[in-house]
Specification:
By secondary structure, the protein is α+β, with helices and mostly antiparallel strands. The strands form three sheets. The protein has a five-stranded antiparallel β-sheet, sandwiched between helices. Strands 7-9-10-12-11 form a five-stranded mixed β-sheet. It has a two-stranded antiparallel ribbon with strand order 6-8. Strand 1 and strand 2 form a beta hairpin. Helix 5 runs antiparallel to helix 6. 22% of the residues are buried.
């Protein structure tokens, strides 16, 4: 056997193996590249299908983004175009007077993106103007892990939610403003009633003095007594004004107030209204309770409850059958009347704004809603509203009971 031939055959076999390996490697490499491209395309399609803006950035420069970014900034056709024109999305962040909103600045040495990444338990927002100069609001979230030096950041548009909240806030302001106006009107009506009697007395005394003086029969004693009566009734008028001032010019901040003392003051203020409309009230209580609450708001809420009962009693009950029961026990204030209650079918609706069972000239449907807002939403107290049937003076009565739990 020729050794040269054997050597040649070996060389040929090695070369064939090498070529085969190269071909196999080439096929594997081509397949792998195709798979990478396919996966990249798949990931890109997935990112582009998202409704939110998603970018990859180090906080100073964008590396990549989905097509939602270019919809928001239509002057940039692709990521290269965006980088050439703007470099970073952060240059569009608007300065907002709110700590939740991120600005394009350093936070303890970290840029905006790193700051969000390091504080993922917090809620961050940004405000950006679009191509139509409309301010849009976004929640901003980052990925939990980095891609090398870069971070995936998602911008979720919450503009509609923000606008809805602003609308609700403005509606609340309008409702409370209307409630204040209604409270002032009701109080002025109460003042007008409380003034009629002392003004009538003053007018009668003054007429008597003038008449007696004209016929020269006015004695010094009668003059002094008449003046004392005028002074006494003038003081009553002054006290009414002071009560009115106390109700509507108190400090808007919360303070420690007494439930029993505050309720007694309100009852005293309405005493002439109760008397005029033949309403008997009963105020029973055990030990007092001090609560942190705005005194003006407390007064407004209780006045609304009592006004609701007064109106219902006048409309539904005869003059000799009108009662309001006010009880404060176990930290619960209950205001109940015997006006027949409210239809169970609408009971759940009467706390809604502008829902009213009164005639339009008597109510706007804000009274009970304002009570709920003041005690439940603003001060986190609990409330309950229900129809109750009870026995009083041996007679079965039915009425609406509003309960505020201050515990």
């Amino acid at each position: 056997m020729d050794l040269n031939n054997i050597k040649y055959i070996k060389i040929q076999s090695i070369m064939a193996s090498v070529i085969a390996l190269i071909i196999i490697f080439t096929f594997i490499l081509v397949y792998y590249i195709k798979q990478i491209k396919y996966q990249d395309t798949k990931n890109k399609v997935l990112l582009d299908s998202q409704p939110n803006i998603i970018i990859i950035t180090n906080g100073e420069k964008i590396v990549d983004a989905n097509k939602q970014l270019f919809k928001f900034f239509p002057s940039a056709k692709n990521i290269e175009d965006f980088i050439n024109k703007y470099v970073c999305i952060c240059s569009f962040f608007e300065v907002m007077d709110n700590e939740e909103y991120i600005e394009n600045k350093l936070y303890n040495g970290n840029n905006w993106c790193e700051h969000i990444f390091l504080n993922q338990n917090k809620n961050f927002k940004v405000a950006i103007k679009n191509s139509n100069n409309e301010l849009r609001h976004f929640n901003v979230k980052t990925s939990k892990v980095k891609l090398g030096e870069n971070i995936i950041v998602t911008f979720i548009d919450i503009t509609n939610e923000i606008l809805q909240k602003e609308k609700e806030i403005n509606t609340q302001k309008a409702i409370f403003q209307q409630s204040k106006i209604n409270a002032v009107i009701n109080t002025l009506n109460n003042i007008a009633h409380q003034w009629r009697q002392p003004l009538g007395i003053i007018s009668t005394i003054a007429s008597g003095i003038k008449l007696k003086n004209s016929i020269k029969s006015l004695t010094d004693k009668e003059f002094d007594e008449s003046c004392d009566k005028i002074i006494y009734n003038t003081q009553k008028l002054s006290n009414t004004i002071e009560n009115f001032t106390d109700f509507f010019t108190k400090d808007s901040s919360s303070s420690s107030i007494s439930i029993i003392e505050s309720t007694n003051q309100i009852i005293k203020f309405l005493s002439s209204v109760f008397e005029k409309n033949s309403i008997i009230y009963k105020f029973n209580y055990d030990k007092d309770l001090m609560i942190e609450c705005n005194s003006g708001s407390f007064t407004e809420a209780i006045l609304n409850l009592l006004d609701n009962s007064i109106y219902s009693l006048i409309q539904n009950n005869k003059e000799n059958d009108r009662y309001i029961f006010i009880d404060f026990k176990d930290s619960k204030l209950s205001i109940k009347d015997n006006a027949g209650g409210v239809d169970d079918a609408i009971l759940s609706k009467i706390l809604e704004p502008y829902f009213t069972t009164k005639h339009q000239s008597f109510g706007t449907g804000l009274g009970l809603y304002i009570v709920q807002e003041i005690f439940v939403r603003n001060h986190n107290f609990k409330s309950d509203l229900r129809n109750e049937t009870f026995i009083y003076n041996g007679k079965e009565n039915r009425g609406l009971n509003f309960i505020i739990d201050f515990s």
